Amino acid sequence: MSPMAISWIAFACVFAGLLLGIALRGKLPKHHLSDEAKDAVKLGMGLIATMSALVLALLIASAKSSHDMQSTEVTEMAADFILLDRTLARYGPETKDIRSLIPATVTNMIDRTWSGDGYRSENLDRALGAGADIFYGKFQRLEPRTDFQRALYAQTMQISMQLGRRRSRLLEETGGSIPMPFLVVLIFWLTLIFTSFGLFAPTNSTVIVILFACALSVAGAIFLILELDRPFQGLLQISSAPLRNALDHIGR
Length: 252
Hints:
There is one protein chain. With 252 residues, the protein is mostly helical. The chain has helices at residues 3-25, 35-91, 96-99, 101-113, 121-139, 147-172, 180-200, 205-228, 241-249. It has nine helices and no strands. Helix 2 (35-91) runs antiparallel to helix 6, helix 4 runs antiparallel to helix 9 (241-249) and helix 5 packs antiparallel against helix 6. The longest helix is centred in the N-terminal third of the chain and has 57 residues, at 35-91.
């Protein structure tokens, strides 16, 4: 389900809780709305509000950590591609065909990962998988003749393995870092809080408009958290600039 759909569901639940509170206020006996009852409800809602704030902070921290980690991986992959190209260039002219695969692989990765259809793990798998197989096939046919070439051969293998690990790590992180039960519980708590608002707040137009804006703000916060948890698409996607900049340096 898309972040937009989830955020609208959150808004509907929260605002429905507000309307439920307003409806209940007209049907409950007056002693249920006494000052003592209000104080008890406020204490309970204060506890739920505190827990909701903690869960929101946890979700933001988790999404931000995942977003930053994948952004770092993309930047380091771009650096590894440049280093791989430089190492093969020092090896000798016999690596020309192998070096020609690097810009094609990077371009394919950019086109598939930042495509209009949005990021999917199979895109990254296809983008790097096929190019890696051809690269390793040609690389294994190299026959180092000097100690310098053998050292560069080992370094190239190390960089290639590092790229493979980064690719695997990105594939593992495409599922998102926010568990759905956290969101369900958070929306339930927020609905309870807004129900208490409707139960005790005066029903004038100013209060309704303010609470409506608050419900929209809550839904917007959930939307931004979910967008942050999808680093390769949406409003807060990771930039492909590091890989595009790497293309300018590869092959020189």
